[in-house]
Design goal:
The longest helix has about 120 residues. It is rod-shaped, with a radius of gyration of 63 Å. The protein has a domain of about 60 residues. The protein is about 90% helix and about 0% strand. It contains 13 helices and no strands. It has about 650 residues and is mostly helical. Keywords: Coiled coil, Signal.
Length: about 650
């Protein structure tokens, strides 16, 4: 803007000196000043556009940061409320877990109590069953003995008494049952039999044929009744077992469901507390970001406030320059000036006065270069003007080079900032994706750990239950073996007694006193011994079978214990691996969160850096071409002025 005024002043003396061969110099000067006036107005318009852009930038950043601060405050309040809700939910879950744990404990106690009651009931059933078997055996023995026919009369008195005593015990135990099945006559006959078995049998032998037939029939009926009772008892035992097993299954399912619910709520509580931590961490990040936004907003407000002041001063200075150019045009474009410039010689005589007047008008310009040349132009020596032009050219070239370097720095900085933002955004996306994957992995691992622990607990409980059942089974085996051994001992002793009598030499048959027939051994003795031997063989077979079953049970339990031990080892190894995976995932998550935090901070710093670059570079980059073009024109004008002044100096020297 100052170059045209400067050129006008420099060219003025030379143009007037050539008035004889060229058009009037005043016309050229006025044209130059008007061009200068147009340039000033264009530059003013460019400044206005730049100021409008700056105001827009200020408005956007002020509103944007204010909105960010308002949104951040609202988000922080929302998260604080969420933290309170999560905390309340976590406490509620803790209460529910305690209630469920209590219910599981009560169900376990009920299960233990039911196990004890069932054991007592089974023990009672077993006792009753053994008693019924014993009573059935007593009735069968009585029926066998009584059914011996005429041999019954030769049976030893002790044998009949033993059978009668065993039967009496059975009848006594089953009195309530027999009251409903035996007649009064039956009871009377039983009482008579119990009182004196031998006398009763002799009496029956005189009345019945075969001997004891009616009594044996009654015994068979009693045996059938006892077997009915035995079947009923066994059915009750089966029903009790089924009821117990259903209860156990139901309670176990209830306990399992309760434990699963406790674990589920525990996991939910862990997730709630994790969400609380994340929300609290996010609140801190928001507060930190709000602090950064407040600092940036303060910087924007300060910058925009300073820019307003600079704009006011710049407008005032430019207006003064425009007014000074307008006054110069007014002076040089007046009629009197045209008349005066028409007289070349007179103009040369008075040039100093007019030049001084134009210089005084332009001296008020804000452009130091124009003012300096205007002052220099008043000096008649051309050397000083030429020297000033050279210095101004050097200064303009330096300014142009500095502005080129500044523009290149800005472009390079913007590109570098953009590349860093892209890189950090990519890193942030990777970190966020990795965090989501780690969270899923932790949830899966937690579920797997819970499942493994549940399997371990189930295996331990199963082994404990199997150990308890095995212990009871061994006790039953030992009892059975002891019973069989005792039975064999008793039967062997009894058999030896019978053998001592029935297997002796025939000489034992002695003549009886007058009135008695010859004594003959009972024909049922051999049958009794055979039965006893059969029973002994049966007990030995049962003993052998029980021993085999006992060994098999011990072997099976040993295999189960060994398998469970291997399973527990595998479960422990599996659990250690899962816990290791969980620990590694948590460590990686912590590191990834730190990386994500760093990426967010880097992005915030880059955003601030970009804003600072816009602040210092937008004007330079946007107006670079216009400012370079203006300075180029100014350099060209200075070069032209230098050429003209150099030629004008020679011309004036020749003329004068």
């Amino acid at each position: 803007m100052a170059s045209k005024a400067m050129r006008a002043l420099l060219v003025l003396p030379l143009a007037l000196a050539r008035t004889l061969v060229e058009e009037r110099p005043v016309t050229k000067v006025v044209k130059m000043l008007k061009d200068m006036q147009d340039t000033l107005e264009k530059e003013q318009k460019a400044d206005e556009d730049m100021y409008d852009d700056l105001k827009c930038w200020c408005k956007e950043n002020q509103q944007g940061k204010a909105s960010e601060l308002s949104g951040g405050a609202a988000k922080a309040t929302e998260l604080a409320s969420l933290v309170e809700e999560l905390n309340a939910s976590a406490e509620s879950l803790a209460t529910q877990m305690a209630t469920l744990a209590k219910e599981v404990k009560e169900a376990t106690a009920t299960l233990d109590q039911a196990r004890v009651l069932h054991g007592n009931q089974v023990e009672k059933y077993n006792t009753d069953e053994k008693s019924l078997y014993k009573d059935i055996e007593a009735v069968e023995s009585a029926a066998t003995v009584i059914g011996g026919g005429s041999a019954l009369l030769q049976m030893p008195e002790n044998r009949l008494k033993d059978v009668a005593a065993a039967l009496q015990d059975a009848v006594s135990r089953r009195s309530a049952r027999l009251d409903n099945t035996l007649s009064i006559r039956d009871h009377e006959r039983l009482e008579a039999f119990f009182k004196d078995p031998e006398d009763f049998v002799k009496g029956q032998s005189l009345l019945q044929s075969p001997i004891g037939g009616e009594l044996a029939g009654m015994f068979e009926g009693m045996k059938d009744d006892f077997k009915v009772d035995l079947k009923k008892l066994q059915e009750e035992m089966a029903k009790e077992k089924l009821t117990y097993e259903e209860l156990m299954a139901g309670k176990k399912e209830e306990i399992k469901a309760g434990e699963a619910s406790v674990e589920s709520k525990r996991q939910q509580r862990v997730e709630k507390r994790q969400s609380m931590m994340e929300a609290s961490f996010e609140i801190k990040n928001i507060q930190k970001a709000m602090g950064t936004s407040q600092e940036f907003l303060a910087m924007v407000e300060e910058k925009c406030s300073t820019s307003d002041q600079e704009w006011t001063e710049r407008q005032k200075t430019r207006q003064e320059e425009i007014e000074s150019v307008a006054k110069a045009i007014e002076v040089l474009d007046a009629d009197e000036a045209h008349q005066t410039f028409g007289r070349t010689y007179s103009f040369l005589q008075k040039a100093d006065d007019r030049l001084k007047r134009a210089s005084q008008v332009l001296a008020g310009s804000a452009d130091r270069r124009v003012a300096a040349l205007a002052a220099t132009a008043e000096v008649k020596g051309m050397e000083k003007v030429l020297k000033a032009i050279a210095e101004m050219k050097t200064g303009l070239k330096k300014e142009m080079q500095d502005e080129v370097e500044q523009r290149d720095f800005c472009i390079s900085s913007f590109n570098a900032n953009k590349a860093k933002v892209a890189e950090m955004s990519s890193m942030k996306g990777k970190h966020s994706t990795k965090l989501a994957m780690l969270k899923t992995k932790l949830e899966t691992t937690a579920s797997e750990i819970s499942e493994t622990k549940g399997q371990m607990e189930a295996a331990q409980k199963e082994l404990k239950k199997a150990a308890e059942d095995h212990e009871k089974e061994l006790a039953d085996f030992n009892t059975t073996l002891a019973d069989q051994a005792a039975t064999q001992k008793l039967l062997t002793k009894a058999l030896d007694s019978l053998k001592g009598f029935y297997q002796e030499a025939p000489a034992l048959v002695q003549a009886t006193p007058e009135g008695f027939k010859d004594y003959k051994k009972s024909g049922g003795g051999n049958a009794a011994m055979q039965l006893m031997q059969k029973i002994i063989l049966d007990t030995k077979a049962m003993e052998a079978e029980t021993s085999r079953a006992k060994k098999s049970s011990q072997k099976d339990f040993g295999k189960l214990a060994e398998a469970t031990d291997k399973d527990m080892g595998a479960f422990n190894s599996k659990l250690e691996g899962q816990q290791s995976v969980k620990a590694n995932a948590m460590e990686t998550m912590s590191m990834t969160k730190a990386d994500l935090k760093g990426a967010n901070k880097e992005l915030a710093d880059l955003a601030l850096e970009e804003a600072n670059l816009h602040e210092s570079c937008d004007f330079v980059v946007k107006n670079f071409e216009l400012r370079q073009s203006a300075r180029t024109e100014e350099l060209e004008g200075l070069q032209k002025a230098k050429s003209i002044l150099s030629g004008g100096s020679s011309f004036l020297q020749k003329r004068f």
